[in-house]
Amino acid sequence: MNLPKQALFYITNPISFGIYSSSRNINKQFYFIFQARFAAQENKALKEQVGKMMVENAALRKKLAETEALLSQEKYLDPAIYNLLPARPTGLNRYLKIDKGLSSGVNIGQAVIFEDNFIGKIINVSTNAASVQLLTDPDSKVAAFSQNKEGKAKGILLGQFETEVLLDKILHEEKISSADLVYSEGTEGFLPRGLILGRVNQVMERENEVFKQAKVQPIFDIRDLELVFVMVE
């Protein structure tokens, strides 16, 4: 009987071994698939968590920048004298859009500033938003002056629909040079005297002419601002 048993063992053993090996391979494949799916789910969860953290981090940075702007503003214009309403820029095309309107006390004609710089004035307002006409707008006209060690020059600052504005109607004998700061005269009523309007980039004059002109550049890029401030009554 031993001989048939041994023969049967030799016949069935490779089959059993093959079934055992196949079972192990199938188990390994299922385990690999399970692990791959688990890793994919875990990776997705990690990506979602990282994305959430990035959004929260951006919000914190924005909040910090706004807080710094609020604290900085008090160094330039006394809040006991000027009633300044902080507003967030929400868009920029021809006009700067802000997120404050009639419900916050914003009205047409009010000045919009940043630190001691004049940004523009409110020309359109709704319940919770407003539009600001910038100095670069072709309809913008502001009485202005520049000053240096040699003297003072007066003129009208005209918008050009570009990054520069033009200081026009400067008397030929008045002193003005490149890099001079240009300030508001304050004759418009809505605008205090002495706010910065920009810096002289180039003086243009011709012989035998009564007036000369100067190109003026803004001090900063409006697109970089987290907050602006409306001078409300």
Any overview of this molecule?
The chain is built from one helix and 13 strands; from the N terminus they run H-E-E-E-E-E-E-E-E-E-E-E-E-E. It is α+β, with helices and mostly antiparallel strands and 233 residues long. It has three domains: 73 residues; 71 residues, Beta Barrel (Thrombin, subunit H), CATH 2.40.10.340; 77 residues, Beta Barrel (Thrombin, subunit H), CATH 2.40.10. A seven-stranded antiparallel sheet has the order 1-13-4-5-6-3-2, with no helix packed on it. The chain has a six-stranded antiparallel barrel with strand order 7-8-9-12-11-10. The model has no long low-confidence stretch (mean pLDDT 83).
Q: What's this, in brief?
A:
The chain is an alpha+beta fold and 233 residues long.
Please indicate the count of domains.
Answer: 3
- CATH architecture descriptor text of the largest domain: Beta Barrel
CATH topology of the largest domain: Thrombin, subunit H
Largest beta-sheet details:
7 strands, antiparallel
N-C termini distance? 114 Å
Radius of gyration (Å): 35 Å
Mean pLDDT, as a whole number?
A: 83
Bin the strand percentage.
25-35%
- Text of the CATH class of the largest domain: Mainly Beta
Structural class: alpha+beta
Oligomeric form of this entry? Answer: single chain
